[in-house]
Amino acid sequence: MSLTKVRDALAAMVGMLVLLWMLQALNWADGYRLDGALGIQPRSLAHLDGIVAAPFLHVSWQHLEGNTVPLFVLGFLAAYRGVSRFFAISAIVIATSGLAVWLFQDDGSITVGASGLVFGYFGYVLARAAFDRNWMDLAAAAAAGGLYYYILLVAVPGTPGISWLDHAGGLAGGVLAGWLTRSRRPVLSSALADSARTLPREGASGRAWCARRWRAPRTGEAERPSRRTWRWQPCRGRSRARWCPRQARAGRSRHG
Questions:
Q1: How far is CA 232 from the centre of its chain?
Q2: Could you tell me the residue range of the domain that residue 140 belongs to?
Q3: Among residues 180, 212, 235, which one ends one of the domains?
């Protein structure tokens, strides 16, 4: 984790929280009429824009206070990998949580609040840790979930005044975002994979061996740029056979 990414993640989350609190002050001063105008109203085409606006509105100061700390912590864990990626994740979570409420919530209700984002960031961090096998992210997400376990208690159906569909949709969106942004590991071609499987285990001197890609042509040897040649060299300090796909410089031997 670089200091630049930490700084950018902190700036993104501070900016988001400042926006939420400014909107709450404006909404409070206006008698919370923004909730009725921009909240999610199930299956109402006239209020379809509420899917985007609802996560930034709250019904009271206590509602916003309850979301602020977990949103900051989990949002930071989601944002430190890159701010541009963080905004893409937020868009996915807002869409999935809002659509879940708009499609399946009971008629006559209005849903607002950033808790869908909280669950979305939580699901994203867990999914990225699982897909990338990053145990540090997994431990951080588990610790954050343990500290703010109360946000998980209201995710079950039946909690009065709480839209569990918003939470479930956000969580699903976070997992989806984690899968879409997972690290793609390079795959060896069949020729390289076959060669790697046939590496000798030990050399005559007891040292492991590795393959060197592309050496400079020797004197009198024609250069064939369209084909790579291979040579075997001992890898110093290695106790097992190791595949070394790095290119060797002309006239020098380097060991991976």
A1: 40
A2: 3-180
A3: 180
What are 116-132's pLDDT values in tens digits?
999 999 999 989 888 88
Q: Supply 11's token pair.
A: 């700036």
Q: Are residues 119 and 245 in the same domain?
A: no
Q: How many CA atoms lie within 13 A of 173 on its CB side?
A: 28
Q: What is the pTM of this model?
A: 0.71
Look at the block and give the residue holding tokens 């050496």: 215
How far apart are the C-alpha atoms of 243 and 223, rounded to whole Å? 25
How far apart, in whole angstroms, are the C-alpha atoms of residue 29 and residue 228? Answer: 72
CB 80 within 8 A of CB 1: yes
DSSP summary character for residue 230: E
- pLDDT tens, residue by residue, 189-223: 444 445 444 444 444 444 444 444 444 555 555 54
User: Can you tell me the mean pLDDT for 220-246?
Assistant: 47
Q: What is the mean pLDDT of residues 41-46?
A: 94
Torsion of CA 210, 183, 78, 169, to 10 degrees: -150
Q: Are 120 and 170 in contact (CB under 8 A)?
A: yes
Domain C-terminal end among 148, 180, 212:
180
